């Protein structure tokens, strides 16, 4: 009698395991984009050039990783971009207009961010409304608050003067300073980005919470049936995105010492694009934090590479659109291949 191998113990080789990784397409794109710009611009591949394009990648990457976790969990947050502005405005306004120590002002901003994330999560999970609609409403409300309150307090759409506030120097050194590596200055935000990516990767790949995130994003009803706290998981993800927005907003406010009331508007789509380029599916249940971080690097390289080559900046939007379409196609093919390997 012929024995058939149980598919549950079927061998999957290293090559196949590599091919089904969600970030594979992003890695290929990263190598291609770097090779393209490095071949044409010596400045791009120099240490100073690398520091230059890692800077925007870092702040974008922090948000892209948090947004990726939320997308893997099956939800979106369109208020993430404007929340960075809200956090920065709270910090600068409290420190410059009401005499708060910078650290205390940052703490207040964190509490507000957590409250917004909690509210988003509760509304989505309690009402079952699409997170796209719920967070779009939050986006509009925060946009109105940012503009209205800033004008009411300052008479303009900008708050400045943070450098003179108590606690600025220490907070700036930790969140907005620079570090010297080989004689080149790199923004400390890069370290925060690496830390956020590492923690998010550990959560996804090594913790029970990571299993819950993939489960609720893949099939929420099935996840509930096996005891996964679906509502709590999604609320935690919305709060995580809000905390990331607070961190980025604080970094930018401390770096520039002033904040415009309209900062962050429109960035939510860039975060989603970076996550998709990094391997996240819009349908949820699939993706990685490392992939989102790589998507942010591709963004940073294209953003600065086009400048280094002296091209019209309008080509950057074309590049983003092309990368989004190619990444979506690659993710679809990888996901389909992964399902064939499992079956």
Explained architecture:
By secondary structure, the protein is mainly α. The chain is 73% helix and 4% strand. The chain is built from 15 helices and four strands. It has helices spanning 14-19, 24-40, 42-45, 47-72, 80-97, 102-127, 131-154, 168-175, 189-206, 208-218, 220-225, 230-256, 267-277, 289-308, 315-342, and strands spanning 158-160, 178-181, 184-187, 258-260. It has a two-stranded antiparallel ribbon. A hairpin with a 2-residue loop joins strand 2 and strand 3 (184-187). The protein is globular, with a radius of gyration of 21 Å.
Which whole number gives the mean pLDDT? 89
Sheet-strand content, in percent, reads under 5%
- Measured as a percent range, the helix fraction is over 70%
Low-confidence stretches: 1-10
SS-derived structural category = mainly alpha
Give the radius of gyration: 21 Å
Number of strands: 4
Query: How are the strands of the biggest sheet laid out side by side?
Result: 1-4
| Secondary structure tally, helices | 15
Order of secondary-structure elements: HHHHHHHEHEEHHHHEHHH
Q: What does the overall shape look like?
A: globular
Main beta-sheet strand count, sense and barrel state: 2 strands, antiparallel
Termini separation: 24 Å
């Amino acid at each position: 009698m012929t024995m058939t191998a149980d598919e549950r113990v079927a061998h999957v080789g290293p090559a196949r395991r590599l091919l089904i990784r969600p970030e594979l397409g992003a890695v290929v794109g990263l190598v291609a984009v770097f090779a393209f710009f490095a071949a044409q611009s010596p400045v791009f591949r120099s240490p100073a050039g690398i520091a230059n394009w890692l800077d925007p990648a870092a702040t974008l990457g922090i948000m892209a990783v948090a947004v990726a976790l939320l997308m893997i969990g099956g939800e979106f947050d369109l208020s993430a971009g404007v929340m960075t502005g809200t956090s920065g405005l709270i910090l600068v306004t409290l420190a410059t207009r009401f005499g708060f120590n910078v650290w205390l002002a940052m703490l207040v901003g964190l509490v507000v961010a957590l409250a917004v994330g909690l509210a988003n999560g509760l509304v989505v999970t309690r009402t079952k409304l699409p997170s796209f609609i719920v967070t779009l409403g939050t986006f509009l409300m925060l946009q109105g608050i940012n503009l209205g309150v800033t004008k009411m307090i300052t008479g303009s759409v900008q708050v400045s003067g943070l450098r003179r506030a108590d606690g600025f120097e220490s907070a700036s050194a930790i969140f907005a300073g620079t570090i010297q590596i080989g004689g080149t200055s790199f923004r400390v935000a890069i370290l925060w980005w690496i830390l956020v990516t590492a923690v998010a990767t550990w959560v996804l790949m090594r913790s029970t919470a990571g299993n819950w995130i993939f489960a609720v994003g893949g099939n929420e009803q099935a996840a509930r049936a096996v005891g996964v706290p679906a509502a709590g998981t999604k609320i935690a993800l919305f709060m995580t995105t809000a905390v990331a927005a607070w961190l980025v907003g604080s970094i930018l406010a401390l770096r520039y010492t002033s904040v415009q009331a309209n900062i962050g508007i429109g960035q939510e789509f860039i975060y989603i694009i970076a996550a998709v380029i990094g391997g996240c599916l819009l349908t949820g249940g699939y993706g990685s934090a490392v992939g989102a971080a790589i998507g942010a690097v591709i963004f940073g390289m294209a953003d600065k590479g086009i400048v280094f080559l002296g091209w019209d900046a309008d080509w950057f939007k074309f590049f983003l659109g092309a990368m989004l379409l190619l990444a979506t196609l690659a993710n679809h093919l990888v996901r389909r291949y992964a399902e064939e390997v499992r079956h």
